[in-house]
Amino acid sequence: MAETLELELIGVPQSNYVWTTRIALGEKGVAYKFIPERPHSPAVDAIHPFGKIPVMRHSDVTLYESKAICTYIDRQFADKPLIPKSAAGGAVCEQWVSVINTEIDPLLMRQYLVGYFFPSTPDGKPNRPKIDAALPKMPKHFELLDRAVGKTGFLVGDNFSLADCFLIPILFYMAKLPESKAMMDERRNLNAYLSNQLKRKSVADSLPPLPQG
Ligand SMILES: N[C@@H](CCC(=O)N[C@@H](CS)C(=O)NCC(=O)O)C(=O)O
């Protein structure tokens, strides 16, 4: 494959994981070429063993998995670290990214949001069994996040970090759907967090078009 000097990010803008990497690129001030490709397209399958987005090419580096891509971006481009340098700060950031990817995204995005946007029902209407099964578990997630951002307005210490890059896209979508919006409306810190973060240039510049629902 020819050497790619400009960083190429591949995936659709609606994907929360693609958006996370675009926020990271924006925060670091990295110019990149965005190549819109859906999951499981040949271009994506050529890089990700399970056909997921985002994937990335830069020079002789080819990567899949959003956390790996963001870590590469953070280390390759020196300005403004997204992962705190201190042992404790770096670990807390890692902790949040991990819990978002293993607990929060699977419930809020893969189960609840997918039940609305990709329902797999015969009539295309929201998949109520899937959505309703998620609802009782969701307040605990919002409560945790509300407490976490209450002190400083960020997930880690008093600065924007990679953990925020992962959380903002999820909350953006949660504010668009009825039950999750009601749960967020009850949580002042989380609402303030989202409205502040949506004003960040890196976030506003990469705002996705909403999927049809
Ligand atoms: N662990 C992956 C998850 C990426 C992911 O789930 N992307 C979704 C779009 S938001 C996707 O490609 N889904 C297609 C599929 O699961 O087959 C990462 O962090 O990059």
In terms of topology, how is this protein built?
Elements: E1 4-10, H1 16-28, E2 32-35, H2 42-45, E3 55-59, E4 61-64, H3 66-76, H4 87-117, H5 128-134, H6 138-150, H7 162-174, H8 178-185, H9 188-197, H10 201-204
Parallel strand pairs: 1-2
Antiparallel strand pairs: 1-3, 3-4
Helix pairs in contact: 1-3, 1-7, 4-5, 4-7, 6-9
The structure holds glutathione.
Notes on the structure:
There is one protein chain. The protein is α+β, with helices and mostly antiparallel strands and 213 residues long. The chain has helices spanning 16-28, 42-45, 66-76, 87-117, 128-134, 138-150, 162-174, 178-185, 188-197, 201-204; strands at residues 4-10, 32-35, 55-59, 61-64. The protein has a 4-stranded mixed sheet with strand order 2-1-3-4, covered by helices on one side. A hairpin with a 1-residue loop joins strand 3 and strand 4 (61-64). Helix 1 (16-28) crosses helix 7, helix 4 (87-117) packs antiparallel against helix 5 (128-134) and helix 6 (138-150) packs across helix 9. The longest helix is centred in the middle third of the chain and has 31 residues, at 87-117. It is globular. The chain starts with a strand and ends in a 9-residue tail after the last helix. Glutathione (GSH) is lined by residues 15-17, 39, 51-53, 65-67.
